């Protein structure tokens, strides 16, 4: 009888311990990512999760689902807005259809360096766009990943002139500004979800695409693309968005931890790009990719894009005055 009583006590203690430990189990949020491991998105996401855990004493964490496991990048905006997805790291151009005012960051040739990207995203313009996405799409930007300039790749031929561009079919995101840019160049843009792009390149449905070197490497585009053209029309910014409903459910302390983790990951992203882009570019050359610059610089590309595309999208981005304010912040002439 004594043995049975001791056994019962032990079982009760075990049950109590199990209940106690489950009470303090970390809350795990799902974080979608469009790119593969090794990308800027992935590096950003890892740092965000690390910092989130550190700033909440392990009470909150995140699980990364890279390579569009949770759907296309645009799908994740919808799901986060509905509250069925917690977070997503995605290209800013895939947020633009749902919050057109952030399209100012995809206007061709507005951002011309990492430093300018940091200035805009981490200053008053970035803060304004955070509020815009909350209002327009029900998602909150809580951090910014930087991936570098989108370069043009293709499988057919070197592209050095706008005439060369007309010979290839280029996959572009479902983003009106980017579609209009290629049309202004006389190109053949084919809108397509990011999750479908590798297969389309592999099967020859499209000849080329544009993305930064870090993404080209992470997505193994060197296996289906040969030629690279160093256009610098868009500096790729990839925000971390969060369901606004989920954000508002959190205590002020957890909200602050999320923002601070996002800020730390933002800083890390800039460091990651600076440390890795040149090395990755060289590795792609070693793998057989042929890199060239546009003939005679990009003057013709710039002129056609800024004169044709900018005016068409003044209204959608929030007005010409908004673009002029950004140009002033960057120390450039107003239009």
Automatic annotation (TrEMBL):
Coiled coil, from the record: none
InterPro entries assigned: DctP_fam (IPR018389), TRAP_DctP (IPR004682), TRAP_DctP_sf (IPR038404)
Classification via Gene3D superfamilies: Bacterial extracellular solute-binding protein, family 7
GO CC terms in record: outer membrane-bounded periplasmic space
One GO BP annotation of this record: transmembrane transport
Source species, domain of life: Bacteria
Signal peptide residues on this chain, from the entry's feature table: 1-25
Keywords: Signal, Transport
Keyword Heme carried by entry: no
Family, as annotated: Belongs to the bacterial solute-binding protein 7 family.
Record's protein name: TRAP transporter substrate-binding protein
Organism: Pontibacterium sinense
